[in-house]
Amino acid sequence: MKKLLAASLLVALFAGVSFAESQVFFTKNISPAGLMAVYNALGREASGKVAVKLSTGEAGNTHYLSPELIGELVKKVNGTIVECNTAYGGSRSETALHRQVIEDHGFNKIAKVDIMDEEGDVELPVTGGKHLKFDAVGSHFKNYDFVLVLSHFKGHAMGGFGGALKNISIGIASSRGKVIIHTAGTKESGSIWYDKQDDFLESMAEAAKAVSDSLDNGKRIMYISVMNHLSVDCDCDGNPAAPDMHDIGILGSLDPVALDQACVDLVYKAPDGQSLINRMESRHGIHTVEHAAAIGLGSREYNLVSLD
Fold this sequence. Notes:
Layout: E1 3-5, H1 7-14, E2 22-27, H2 32-41, E3 50-53, H3 67-76, E4 80-83, H4 95-104, E5 113-115, E6 121-125, E7 134-138, E8 146-152, E9 154-156, E10 160-162, H5 164-169, H6 175-182, H7 197-214, E11 221-227, E12 249-253, H8 256-269, H9 274-282, H10 286-294, E13 302-306
Parallel strand pairs: 1-13, 2-13, 3-4, 3-8, 4-5, 8-11
Antiparallel strand pairs: 2-12, 6-7, 9-10, 11-12
Helix pairs in contact: 2-3, 7-10, 8-10
């Protein structure tokens, strides 16, 4: 059962009390200070060589997480912003073009930016999957000790929505890896379009688990999602639909399944979320979360802890 915990229960958490459900921390304060509050509440230090995984946004898109919002946190963890090239053409399909977008969007003003598949990819084993035997990720992924996942929660034309699970599956996959995920392991090159929607969604969950497993079974990764600019379209769309619902807040968890489930639930609870709900339901988007839970990546049961 999902509960909104009082501040006293948050104190109990840090006193060492354990809970059956995963913890998801929440603030309505969408600001650098709010982002720092969520990071600190997670109780896990991003240490060593830290990769900060986010979407740099397609050229023409303005809904991506702004450098002004995330800059303080990225500097706090001494992080390197990491991305991979796309597999669908556009302004980020090649490294040189992608670097121009990164510069135009201002990310290299706050941190070093690494396009992880610039020199190819490496394969991470998938355990317990129905479709994938491996996940192909940017080769530079292996250079990092810890991953801080900063996701902009929003809709997505193919996945229904994009959150933490998409950010570590499609987002960390190389161009080849993206084709593999989109086509449920049936192809490694060519078009990403595939007619078996649930197989694609399940493959995203399986790739996400491969990434988590490779980081000491999730001990060297943490997740923060920002629910603002809630368009039905993804940051990978150069001409996204304008948001027609209000911003919600910032959420964080050590469990990506619980985090995505909490974000979805908040959209359903919002009085103006129908457009995004329609997009998610039309793509059966929740199935990514269902399959991720089924293969052991995390729990759909969570406690929502207010930091406000």
